[in-house]
Amino acid sequence: MNRERIRELTAMLKDSRADELEVREGDLRVRLRKQTAVLAVAEAGPIAAATNCPECNGEQVAPPEQDNFVQVKSQLVGLFHRGRRPGVEPLAQAGDKVSAGQLLGTIEALRNFTDVTSPVDGTIVQVIAEDGQPVQYGDPLMAIQPSV
C-alpha cells in the first residue's frame, strides 16, 4: 500500500459519515479513525451538549437534567437512527407515551441494526440525539418522564 492509496482512504473517510475505516490489502492492514465533536462530548460527561430541537424551530436546547428523567442511552458505538433504518419515519417523537421495551430507534454499527428500546413506561420529553448522529457508549439519546 503506497502513500497515495492511504491519502485516498483518508479522503474517503473524511467524506463519509463513518468514524472509522479499516482496509486490508494482502498482509497489510490500515485503520483510520476520525476524532469528532461527539467523542469530545462523550469524554466530557454523561450528558450531551446542547442539540438542535426540531420541535423548537432549530433552537439550541440543553438536554433535561438527569434527576427528573430517565435517559435512554446508547449501548453501542454507531449511528443513531430514529426509525428502523436510515431515512424512514421516526418511531418516537417528543410527547409520545411509551411502554417499557417499546422500540424507539436503532443504532447502526457495521451495517447491523440494533434496537433501542424504552427502559420504562412514560412520556418522551426530548429526543436528544439527531437522526444519523454518531453515538458512543453511554451517550444520551432520549429523555423519558416515567409514569407515576
Structure described in brief:
The protein has helices at 3-15, 37-44; strands at 20-25, 28-33, 51-52, 60-61, 70-73, 78-81, 97-98, 103-109, 112-117, 122-127, 133-135, 140-146.
Summarize this structure as a short list of keywords or feature phrases:
single chain, 148 residues, mainly beta, OB fold (Dihydrolipoamide Acetyltransferase, E2P), 2 domains, four-stranded antiparallel beta sheet
Helices and strands, with pairings:
Layout: H1 3-15, E1 20-25, E2 28-33, H2 37-44, E3 51-52, E4 60-61, E5 70-73, E6 78-81, E7 97-98, E8 103-109, E9 112-117, E10 122-127, E11 133-135, E12 140-146
Antiparallel strand pairs: 1-2, 3-4, 5-12, 6-8, 6-11, 7-10, 8-9, 10-12
How would you characterize this protein structure?
- This protein has helices at residues 3-15, 37-44; strands at 20-25, 28-33, 51-52, 60-61, 70-73, 78-81, 97-98, 103-109, 112-117, 122-127, 133-135, 140-146.
- A hairpin with a 2-residue loop joins strand 8 and strand 9 (112-117).
- The model is unreliable at 36-53 and 59-66 (pLDDT under 50).
- By secondary structure, it is mostly beta strands.
- It folds into 2 domains: 3-33, no CATH class; 46-146, OB fold (Dihydrolipoamide Acetyltransferase, E2P) (Beta Barrel).
- It has a 4-stranded antiparallel beta sheet with strand order 5-12-10-7, with no helix packed on it. Strands 9-8-6-11 form a 4-stranded antiparallel beta sheet. It has a two-stranded antiparallel sheet with strand order 1-2.
Q: Strand share of the residues?
A: 35-45%
Largest sheet: 4 strands, antiparallel
pLDDT < 50 stretches:
36-53, 59-66
What is the number of domains? 2
By secondary-structure content and strand pairing, the structural class works out as mainly beta
Which architecture name of the largest domain does CATH use?
A: Beta Barrel
Radius of gyration: 17 Å
For the record, give the distance between the C-alpha atoms at the N and C termini, rounded to a whole number.
60 Å
Q: What kind of assembly state do the chains in view correspond to?
A: single chain
Counting H and I runs of at least 4 residues, what is the number of helices?
Answer: 2
The total count of strands amounts to 12
Shape estimate: elongated
Order of helices and strands: HEEHEEEEEEEEEE
The largest sheet has its strands arranged as: 5-12-10-7
CATH H-tier superfamily of the largest domain: RNA polymerase II/Efflux pump adaptor protein, barrel-sandwich hybrid domain
Q: What is the average per-residue confidence, as pLDDT, rounded to a whole number?
A: 77
Helix coverage percent of residues? 10-25%
Report the CATH C-level class of the largest domain: Mainly Beta
